[in-house]
Design a protein that fits this description.
Length: 133
């Protein structure tokens, strides 16, 4: 062992980290690689963005998703975030799911209220028409 500048001993031959191999081309890759540098195969999932800008866009998308009839549910990132193993990403996904659920309840409620008012208005006008006879 050799002493470092603090006088502590360090190993001259540090133990090598176990290297991963690409499942396609079987070349060694570093654990921090997302893609194999040899064949380009995806070897690890890229981390999801947790920036404020991405959170705002996810939450806004979650709020309007029920309003547009869930037409773009396949593009909604809340599912990926909720399934993530990273706690911050999972929390963003849970908040997005909560917003979707609340927004869906509000859309159903307002649709019910609007439909009920329209039916009541139609019934009232029919009653007035029948009362004229």
């Amino acid at each position: 062992m050799e002493p470092n500048y603090n006088g502590q001993n360090i190993e001259s031959n540090p133990t090598p980290q176990p290297q991963e191999t690409c499942p396609v081309c079987h070349q060694p890759i570093l654990p921090q690689y997302y893609y194999c540098p040899n064949c380009g195969n995806k070897v690890h999932r890229e981390p999801l963005s947790t920036s404020v800008k991405s959170q705002i866009s996810i939450y806004l998308f979650s709020a309007i998703l029920p309003v547009i009839g869930f037409l773009f549910v396949k593009r909604w990132p809340g599912i990926k975030y909720a399934k993530s193993k990273d706690p911050k990403e999972r929390q963003i996904g849970q908040i997005a799911w909560t917003i979707v659920i609340i927004s869906t309840i509000l859309v159903i409620y307002f649709a019910y209220v609007a439909t009920n008012r329209a039916v009541q208005s139609a019934l009232n006008s029919m009653n007035m028409d029948l009362g004229a006879f």
